Amino acid sequence: MPIDHRLDAAQLPTPSALLRAFLHTHHPDPTRHQVLDAASGLASCHDRRRRILEQARDPAASSSGVAACGRLVDAIDDDRGALIARIDDWVATHVEHRDGASLHTETLGAVIDRMAAKWIAAQQALAAQTTTTPRQREARTHLQWCRLAELTDGYRDLITDVTEHRRRLPVW
């Protein structure tokens, strides 16, 4: 009988570790968990994507500038796809999948990508210099952080269910 060298699902990063990885996007750490390293890269991609889209939406942007922004967004999305695949490959290799457990609708990479996007949106809401009233800014900021909290809770529930073999992650 072959020996299975897979890690228990308990090796999945905690929600707080994921949020810390999103915060530290400029200093990759080779000793860090591979999923956290990819999560950090996803947050960086979403931040770059947000800045490029802002440039494209500038009323003074030329048509060639908007087209260049579109190509940059496509390249960033390709980078995101590669990072999502790295996470999903790690899951396929390291997490034991139990037959009979409910299949989750998204891969772990897709879940972390959505969390990274919402992290950047929440950070942007805090830093936004808009012409809206303080009450509107506060409501928008609160909404972004509530949505991030909901995704974080969902991630926590997912890794708990995977650890307790009630759910399995899709592997392609």
Overview of this structure, please?
The protein has helices spanning 15-23, 34-57, 63-94, 108-127, 134-163; strands at residues 102-103, 167-168. By secondary structure, it is an all-alpha fold. α3 packs across α4 and α4 packs antiparallel against α5. The protein starts with 14 loop residues before the first helix and ends with a strand. 28% of the residues are buried.
Keywords, separated by commas or semicolons:
mainly alpha, 2 strands, 172 residues, disordered N terminus, two-stranded parallel sheet, globular
Strand residues, percent:
under 5%
Number of strands: 2
Straight-line distance between termini: 25 Å
Low-pLDDT stretches are: 1-7
Percent helix range: 55-70%
The count of helical stretches stands at 5
The dominant shape is globular
Largest sheet: 2 strands, parallel
Reading the helices and strands in chain order gives HHHEHHE
Average of the residue pLDDT scores: 88
What is the spatial order of strands in the main beta sheet?
A: 1-2
Radius of gyration: 18 Å
* Class derived from helix and strand content: mainly alpha
Give a brief rundown of this model.
The protein is mostly helical and 172 residues long. The chain has helices at 15-23, 34-57, 63-94, 108-127, 134-163, and strands at residues 102-103, 167-168.
